[in-house]
Amino acid sequence: ETGVTQSPTHLIKTRGQQVTLRCSSQSGHNTVSWYQQALGQGPQFIFQYYREEENGRGNFPPRFSGLQFPNYSSELNVNALELDDSALYLCASSLPAQANGYTFGSGTRLTVV
Amino acid sequence: KNEVEQSPQNLTAQEGEFITINCSYSVGISALHWLQQHPGGGIVSLFMLSSGKKKHGRLIATINIQEKHSSLHITASHPRDSAVYICAVRSSGTSYGKLTFGQGTILTVHP
Q1: How far apart (Å, rounded) are the C-alpha atoms in residues B39 and A6?
Q2: What DSSP string describes A36-91?
């Protein structure tokens, strides 16, 4: 049974650029959610994908978008990067039933300069 | 006021001490999670609770649904327990699995 893998682990981008972060879900999990964790803060929910459709979204602007693929892996895309987008981006996979837990990846550390 | 509040924000202990971290929440929940985050950033799930108490090794987690409060206890603490401990709740008001996180408690255990 594999865990959740995120890539890349670290990334430096320039303000205004676009970035794509990737996440593979744990085997058997069909739901992936993404979180943004600013330094010293708890993670904030960005959105969730279930069976290739976005089925929940937090308070993030449309320049944060995502995809989920048939193998349940997922991408987070951020356009027009701003300095405040610098954060640790975490993904978590799960099964949709509320009784199930989550498996988290190690995160991608994004720095916008 | 945040929906999930943890206390204390920082905790320093000597090896062997009994540690308690508290979590209060203000929304109806279907589950509460205790998570551990090490300096590299990766998060490990410790417990998922909807009622009562769970124990795993030296870790014990309790929840009181009526009081909207949970505690994480570490017995016989060890320097390797040093990490950020985060409480997160899954709201019963959403059909999807959004987690709302506390700010975390930074635990440092000295030898």
Answers
A1: 16
A2: EE-TTS--EEEEEEETTEEEEE-S--TTEEEEE-TTS-EEEEE-S--GGG-EEEEE
Chain A residue closest to B101 (CA)?
A: A42
Question: pLDDT by residue (tens digit) across A5-58?
Answer: 999 999 999 999 999 999 998 888 888 999 999 998 899 999 999 889 998 899
Q: Inter-chain contact A96–B4, Cβ cutoff 8 Å?
A: no
pLDDT digits (tens, 9 = 90+) for B63-79: 999 999 999 999 999 99
Evaluate if residue B42 carries a pLDDT over 80: yes
Q: Which residues in chain B have Cβ-Cβ distances shorter than 8 Å to A48? A: 96-98
Tokens standing for residue B13? 């202990």
Position B95 scores a pLDDT of: 62
Cα distance between residue B43 and residue B35, in whole Å:
6
Q: Does B84 touch chain A (CB under 8 A)?
A: no
> Which residue in chain B has the smallest CA separation from A46?
B98
Q: Above 70 in pLDDT, residue B105?
A: yes
Closest residue by Cα to residue B90 from B78, B79, B101:
B101
Q: Does B4 touch chain A (CB under 8 A)?
A: yes
